[in-house]
């Protein structure tokens, strides 16, 4: 249980660095779709390179379980990653992240239907406190945010995609190992990316770039923010339930905020510090509550 929380918390920390590296790539002229697609393609190349050593036999498993694994892969590649980066183009990073972190509510709803996870009023209250904390942390006073109906749809879509990814992953982990699920999640839907002209345009732009910051940022969002992040998340998901894992991932906006403070030298408002406290307390209490429930069920 404690190890599962550690894995998910570390995964969320790595995810929190994506905004810093993504800013470099947006400034270099890459679109949100291109950043997301190249990020996934680089990750896929690395996974295929180590396939004979680490993932041998996984293609046969993907063929036999494609009805579950293909939707799971589409959820993470398109439903979560792609929609989130597109949402940032329409709404900006702050609002896109805020909408993404409505995911705990979607996860609890889906988990109750498909996983049979029962969440009491206390757990629901903690989830809403956590989401409220995210809202406080992402409150940018004095900054105008241009709202777009299409952008809002993409933002909520990324949250629902993340929830589907988490719930389908939990179901798949009943019969499939974490490493094989990781491989299928990050490779199954990749060929679909190559059907989009924007993907090839982004790859051409990257091939012509001589900026080490651009190449380094793509390596970072791929290996740290995608591969290692998902390895830790999948392993954490085998130890704690889906709704608990999603609440813990609210650490991500904390990391993003702190990086903005130390790197961009932004100053946090008192309300944002209050949000930090809300998220930390909610995540801690939800973990304690989940641990007690598991202990009582064993007894």
Protein model, in words:
Helix 8 packs antiparallel against helix 15 and helix 9 packs antiparallel against helix 17 (270-298). The protein is an all-alpha fold. The protein is built from 17 helices and no strands. The protein has helices at residues 2-15, 18-27, 32-49, 51-54, 58-64, 66-91, 93-100, 103-114, 121-137, 149-172, 178-187, 190-193, 197-208, 212-237, 242-248, 251-263, 270-298.
> What separation lies between the terminal Cα atoms?
16 Å
**Class derived from helix and strand content:** mainly alpha
| Number of distinct beta strands | 0
Tally of helical segments? 17
Order of helices and strands: HHHHHHHHHHHHHHHHH
Let me know the largest β-sheet: none
What shape does the CA trace take? globular
**Poorly predicted parts:** none
Report the β-strand fraction as a percent range: under 5%
Which oligomeric form is depicted?
single chain
Helix content: over 70%
Give me some keywords for this one:
299 residues; mainly alpha; 17 helices
Which secondary structure elements does this structure contain, and how are they paired or packed?
Layout: H1 2-15, H2 18-27, H3 32-49, H4 51-54, H5 58-64, H6 66-91, H7 93-100, H8 103-114, H9 121-137, H10 149-172, H11 178-187, H12 190-193, H13 197-208, H14 212-237, H15 242-248, H16 251-263, H17 270-298
Helix pairs in contact: 1-14, 1-16, 2-14, 3-6, 3-13, 3-14, 5-6, 6-7, 6-10, 6-11, 7-10, 8-10, 8-15, 9-17, 11-14
